[in-house]
Amino acid sequence: MTLREKSVREHLRAVYGTLALGLFTATLGAILHIFTKFFEGSLFIFFLPILFMTILSRTPHSHENERKRLMYFLGFALFSGISSGPLFQRAMDVDRSIIMTAFLSSSVIFGCFTLAALLAPSTKYLYLGGTISSALVALFVTAIFFHSEFMHTVCLWGGLAISCALVLYDTQLICEKRRRGDNDYVWHTIELFIDFLNLFDYIVSILKEKKVSFPYFNMIHNSANDL
Predict the structure, then answer these.
(1) pLDDT at 195 > cutoff 60
(2) What 3-state class would DSSP assign to 1?
């Protein structure tokens, strides 16, 4: 059980504290895009998160660089939020409740799979690495070569399932890295941040598709709520 190890517990405390700060920063970025149309229509905005992540990866992990690397991570989080803004805006145009529902759902799912990884034997889910890689390749090929409404739905739900598996895998991988002396909590936070953001994006897309595909059901549901 991972939580019994003091060094791992302290490392996870730093990782999840930084993750919370990153998610807050990403939220500010998404709000900035939605209400100010910051960088609207600019492809450059999609490269900024990659730029910050590359700079962070090339900055050595040391006590002297800790604050600098944290700023790079927050820059990555901010522009990740801004680049996700168009998806959130389209979802809000369909139904404003989608974003909050997706965030709560993502938080619950992320929390449950995180606990499952932490409470399980320390290397139980590390074998998922090969399966996840194969599934990602299959999903990528499907998205490129098969264009139909059914396959689009398959890709959304498949992506959601892979995102859940990645939470299990990355959580245990981070713990295993710490056991082997890797205490780079900022880089480990990026791995979980990407997992959460992907999970959130997939749930937003699924909820948006549901609202668009079943308008009659949603009308009845909303009328029942009004009563």
Answers:
(1) yes
(2) coil
120 secondary structure, DSSP code: S
CB atoms within 10 A of CB 204: 23
Rounded-to-integer distance, Cα 206 and Cα 60, Å? 39
State the distance between the two ends of the chain, measured CA to CA, in whole angstroms.
Answer: 49
Task: Give the chain's radius of gyration (CA, Å).
Answer: 19
Residue 226 has pLDDT above 70, yes or no: no
User: What does pTM read for this prediction?
Assistant: 0.87
Residues in the chain: 227
The mean of the pLDDT values for the chain is: 87
Q: Which residues contact 101 (CB under 8 A, 6 or more apart)?
A: 207
Q: What confidence tens digit (pLDDT) does each residue in 104-162 have?
A: 999 999 999 999 999 888 778 888 888 999 999 998 898 888 777 888 888 999 999 99
Written in H, E and C, the secondary structure of 32-80 is HHHHHCCCCCCHHHHCHHHHHHHHHHHCCCCCCCHHHHHHHHHHHHHHH
Burial class (CB in 10 A: 0-12, 13-18, 19+), 180: exposed
C-alpha 64/C-alpha 60 separation (Å) is 9
Residue type at position 98: I
